[in-house]
Design a protein that fits this description.
This protein is mainly beta. It is built from one helix and 16 strands. The N and C termini lie far apart (42 Å). The chain binds 2-acetamido-2-deoxy-beta-D-glucopyranose (2 copies). The site of one 2-acetamido-2-deoxy-beta-D-glucopyranose has 2 residues, from loops.
Length: 213
């Protein structure tokens, strides 16, 4: 019995440990993404996927998005900013991504109607939050470029291409957010954790792999 328990806990530890990889930064711009077309300066559409994570509830899940609502003049709602998220269920509509004109973009609603309904869908540029201790991948906000990375263990390149940036980190944190007005099922907020930052309370870590890589 004891040995069986030990085997199970060893297995769980193996599955949940974040692999110790060395990220290698690829050049800035769209050519570092899969399925790039030099003639149009664009990639095909793709999603990104949580892999090698500490959280079995979202392992293999693809990106969705959410946004923050502000109240403007005459009590009219407006979209302050939006951000990529990971869903609590993998069967709901995903947020399409592509790289064009040198920038990663998401196909998202960018405004609200007077009644508060999301509208004006477009390929909106994504940027890493410019603020310290934040690392959220945002739209409608200027920030730092999210970059493409390869992963190495020793000299050996690992399969896939990964999103990262700041001080060459590719470790993302995922924190569960309860259902709320703009997210029927709740979601996991995702942030890029700088190499100097600690993982947060109730936050699990993982990598974000580019589909088709
Ligand atoms: C990230 O890695 C690249 C390539 O090794 C290096 O040129 C760059 O200075 C690094 N960036 C930071 C912020 O450490
Ligand atoms: C962490 O999760 C527990 C259980 O859901 C909750 O009670 C606690 O408030 C959370 N802590 C933070 C800092 O969110």
């Amino acid at each position: 019995m004891v040995s069986k328990l030990l085997t199970i806990s060893a297995l769980v530890a193996t599955v949940l440990a974040l692999p110790d990889v060395t990220p290698k930064q690829l050049p800035s711009g769209c050519a570092s993404y899969p399925n790039y077309h030099a003639d149009s300066g664009e990639t095909d559409g793709f999603l990104v996927e949580v892999v090698d994570s500490e959280n079995p509830a979202i392992e293999g899940f693809y990106d969705t998005s959410d946004y923050s609502v502000g109240i403007g003049a005459q009590g009219r709602p407006y979209m302050r900013w939006g951000y990529l998220t990971i869903p609590t269920r993998n069967d709901i509509a995903k947020t399409g991504l592509k790289c064009s004109d040198g920038v990663l973009r998401a196909w998202v609603d960018t405004e609200l109607t007077a009644a508060g309904a999301p509208t004006n869908t477009q390929w909106s540029p994504l940027a890493l939050s410019p603020y310290a201790n934040d690392g959220v991948l945002l739209y409608k906000v200027e920030g730092e470029e999210v970059r493409v990375y390869e992963h190495y263990v020793g000299e050996e390149k690992q399969p896939g291409l990964f999103l990262g940036g700041y001080d060459n980190s590719t470790t993302w944190g995922f924190t569960y957010i309860e259902p709320h007005a703009t997210s029927e099922y709740g979601n996991y907020q995702m942030r890029l954790i700088r190499t100097t930052e600690d993982v947060g309370t109730n936050e699990t870590r993982g990598f974000v792999k580019i589909q088709g890589s």
